[in-house]
Amino acid sequence: MDGQQSTAAKAATVGPVILLGAPGAGKGTQAKLIAQRYGIPQISTGDILRDNVARGTELGKKAKAFMDRGELVPDQLVCDMVADRLRQADCNHGFILDGFPRTVAQAEWLDQLLADQFFKNRCQVPPVVVNFRVGYNQLLQRLTGRRSCPACGRIYNIYFQPPRVPDTCDADGSKLVTRKDDTEEVIAERLKAYERQTLPLIDYYQRQGRLREINGDQPPDKVTAEAFRAMEHGDRL
Ligand code: AP5
User: Fold this and answer.
1) Considering the domain boundaries, does residue 45 fall inside one?
2) Domain that holds residue 172
3) FRET partner for 63 with CA separation of 20 to 30 A, picked from 92, 124, 179, 222?
């Protein structure tokens, strides 16, 4: 891609981006960088659900028990939530789905939604799917070491990406927090749910010819560079 290309032009050409990967694979970390580069929004279903739980909405009340156990929230609840979000104007030229789809049923639903005339008129580019591959032990260390800023959402890791001052956000000085589902017991359930329900999506998108595989087990800037290359590959831009 031409380095001089405007953010608006990049946004219009990159279109929808779907990030796949196990819990802790780096989807949220990379989504923020992709959002900055292309000027398209990061839509993290986990973040939206956690926000609903924190605000005590009807959706949050229904989702909370599933999330606390490390299970997936039922498809219909998540799909309705995503449909509402994708209809907002900031998604006109593209968006990054971080944590969605997570089941084959969600992926089929998304294909139908994007084939709808409303979405076709707004975004001409078909989605690209980027899968971050990371080994099991590395995932465990990443999840148990994760801390995040409750104010700006920045993600840290006490082993790999520590803040300059322990427990404090570099950007705004807030006290960092540990996610409630980042305990060893819940992590084990989340990884099981991933293997059972989300791994089949690799085949699903491979068959559609949309899948780009990335080695997520390298320093974040190397992963970012590979992700940008994957999105800007071939006939997409
Ligand atoms: P969600 O919030 O989506 O969690 P997740 O998929 O389990 O993914 P994570 O956010 O844990 O990891 P990540 O891949 O974003 O990694 P990160 O960049 O933070 O979902 C939570 C729950 O919500 C689910 O369990 C489910 O209940 C529900 N839910 C959400 N979506 C749903 C859906 N579609 N359907 C049904 N239910 C749904 O990085 C992790 C750590 O690693 C950080 O500390 C980071 O600093 C570090 N790190 C990142 N990259 C690197 C690197 N290259 N090298 C070293 N360290 C790194």
Assistant:
1) no
2) 2-40+93-225
3) 92
Provide residues with CB under 6 Å of ligand 1.
21, 23-29, 45-46, 49, 66-67, 70-73, 78, 99-100, 102, 106, 142, 145-146, 155-157, 160-161, 181, 190, 219-220, 223
Would you say residue 55 lies in a domain?
A: no
Is residue 102 part of the annotated active site? The answer reads yes
Query: Does 32 fall in a domain?
Result: yes
Question: Tens digits of per-residue pLDDT, 88-126?
Answer: 999 988 999 999 999 999 999 999 999 887 777 777 788
* Sign of the alpha-carbon torsion through 222, 212, 32, 10: positive
Q: How confident is the model at residue 15 (pLDDT cuts 50, 70, 90)?
A: confident
Residue 154 annotated in active site: no
Q: Whose CA is nearest to atom 53 of ligand 1?
A: 220
For residue 18, being part of any structural domain is answered with yes
Mutation test residue for ligand 1: of 18, 19, 27, 80, the one with most atoms within 8 Å of CB: 27
Specify the pTM.
0.93
